[in-house]
Design brief:
The structure is a single chain. The protein is built from ten helices and ten strands. A four-stranded antiparallel beta sheet has the order 3-5-1-6, with helices on both faces. Strand 7 and strand 8 form a beta hairpin.
C-alpha cells in the first residue's frame, strides 16, 4: 500500500529561475508553461517546443554537465520532475539502419548492505565482479530482461553518477548499433568497449553501511521490443542475490546485495536512490528500537524538516527516536531529499515505516528548522521535551 503524503515543509533552497543562465532560464519557463497549460493540447505543444530545444543537447557529448545541472538546479520539484520525464523518454533504443534490431541499455540497482566487526581505515570492497557470466546465466535461466537471451552484463558495479542525467548523451550514444555490426556484434560490446570505473563499496567497523551501486548491461532485440516492462524482481531474485553477494564480498565482511528490477539507466537511478534511503531508514529504525525498547520502553518519534548546507539541495528531513526515561539515548537519522523527491512523499515513507514497527507516538513538525542547536552546535534532533511550545504538528 502506498502511504498518503504528509504535509511537511520542503526545507531545500530553490533558485530563482530568472537568475539562471539565459539558456537554462528559457527551458525553465517552457517547462512551467507546460505544467500550467489549461488544456492537454497546449501542454503537448509546450512539451514539443521543450523537446525541440533539448534535442541538440542529447547528441552533444559535451552537454551532459548542462543537462545534469538543469535538473539539479531546477526552481521547483515539479519543474525538475517534468524536465526529467522528457529527458528519460528519449532514452529508448533505436534500430540500426536497415537492420530491424536495436540495443537496449539497462541498469540493475543494487542496495549493498556491508558490515564488518573490525575494518582498517578507508577499507572498501572493490566493486569488481569476477564472474559476470554467472549472473547473466541466472537472469537468462529465469526469463529476466523480457525473456531475451542476447544480453551481457558488465564486470563492475558503478555509482549513480555514471548513469545519471549528466551522462545521458553518452548513454544514448552507447545504444547506437552501427549497421555494419547489427548482425554480428556481441551483446556486451557497448559496455566492454568502454572502461567502466568501479565504485568501491565502503566498510566501517562495528556497523552496517548501506551503499547504492548499479550493474549495467546491454541487450540486442527486435526494434520496438520492450525488454524492461516487468518492474518486479521475479524468481531470479534469490539466486541472483546469493551469487552477487558472494562475488562482492571478501574476507571477514558480511555482504547482502539486494537487487531491484532492471530498468533504463535514468529510471534505475531514481528507484535506486529511493530504495537506498528506505533500506537505510529500516536498518536505523530496527537497531534504534531494539536498543531503546530494551533500555527504556516505548519511544517517541519526531520527523522534522531542516536546512542543512551539506545536504543535497541544502535541506533534509530528520527522524529522531527517544524516550523521556533515557534522554541521552536519543537516536537520529538524516534523510536526504534528491532533486525529484517530494518532501511529503519521503515523510510519508518514514511515518509508514514507524507504523509498521508499531511506534505509537509519531509526531511530524510543521515549519523548517535550523541545522544545529544554538547552544551546543550539535545537529538539531527534536525530542518530545525539546519541541518548541509554539511548534505546530502536521501529523
Amino acid at each position: 500500500m502506498i502511504a498518503a503524503p504528509i504535509a511537511i515543509a520542503d526545507p531545500r533552497s530553490f533558485a530563482d529561475p530568472d537568475a539562471a543562465a539565459p539558456e537554462a532560464a528559457a527551458l525553465y519557463r517552457q517547462a512551467a508553461a507546460s505544467l500550467a497549460a489549461p488544456t492537454g493540447r497546449e501542454a503537448d505543444a509546450a512539451d514539443a517546443a521543450l523537446r525541440s530545444a533539448l534535442a541538440p543537447k542529447l547528441s552533444d557529448a559535451g552537454a551532459g554537465a548542462f543537462l545534469g545541472a538543469l535538473v539539479a538546479a531546477a526552481p521547483s520539484v515539479a519543474i525538475a520532475r517534468h524536465l526529467w520525464r522528457l529527458l528519460a523518454a528519449v532514452g529508448q533504443s533505436s534500430p540500426a539502419p536497415g537492420s530491424g534490431v536495436a540495443v537496449t541499455a539497462f541498469a540493475i540497482p543494487v542496495i549493498v548492505v556491508a558490515g564488518v566487526e573490525i575494518a582498517p581505515a578507508a577499507a572498501t570492497l572493490s566493486g569488481i565482479l569476477p564472474d559476470p557470466d554467472a549472473l547473466t546465466a541466472i537472469l537468462r535461466d529465469h526469463g529476466a530482461i523480457g525473456g531475451n537471451r542476447t544480453f551481457a552484463l558488465a564486470n563492475t558495479l558503478v555509482g549513480a553518477d555514471a548513469i545519471d542525467i549528466g551522462r545521458l548523451p553518452e548513454l544514448l550514444a552507447w545504444q547506437v548499433l552501427p549497421a555494419s555490426d547489427a548482425d554480428g556484434q556481441a551483446p556486451g560490446a557497448a559496455w566492454t568497449a568502454r572502461a567502466l570505473e568501479p565504485a568501491p563499496i565502503p566498510l566501517a567497523s562495528g556497523h552496517e553501511v548501506v551503499s547504492l551501486r548499479f550493474l549495467l548491461g546491454t541487450a540486442i532485440a527486435a526494434a520496438g521490443a520492450d525488454l524492461l516492462a516487468d518492474a518486479t524482481v521475479g524468481k531470479w531474485g534469490m539466486p541472483f542475490t546469493r551469487e552477487l553477494g558472494h562475488q562482492i564480498g571478501g574476507g571477514s565482511a558480511s555482504v547482502l546485495a539486494l537487487p531491484r528490477a532492471p530498468q533504463r539507466p535514468l529510471a534505475a537511478v531514481q528507484q535506486g536512490r529511493a530504495a537506498q534511503r528506505e533500506v537505510s531508514a529500516q536498518i536505523f529504525v530496527g537497531n534504534a528500537l531494539r536498543r531503546l525498547r530494551a533500555a527504556a520502553g516505548e519511544p517517541t518519534a519526531v520527523v522534522s524538516a531542516h536546512r542543512a548546507p551539506d545536504a543535497p539541495g541544502g535541506g533534509e528531513l530528520r527522524l529522531s527516536l527517544s524516550s523521556p526515561f533515557e534522554p541521552r539515548d536519543a537516536e537520529g537519522f538524516r534523510c536526504p531529499l534528491y532533486p525529484l523527491d517530494r518532501a511529503a512523499d519521503v515523510a510519508a515513507m518514514l511515518v509508514q515505516l514507524l507504523r509498521d514497527c508499531r511506534v505509537a507516538d509519531v509526531r511530524v513538525l510543521a515549519g523548517i528548522h535550523p541545522d544545529r542547536e544554538s547552544g551546543t552546535g550539535l545537529r538539531l534532533l527534536f525530542k518530545p521535551d525539546t519541541i518548541p511550545a509554539a511548534a505546530a504538528l502536521v501529523h
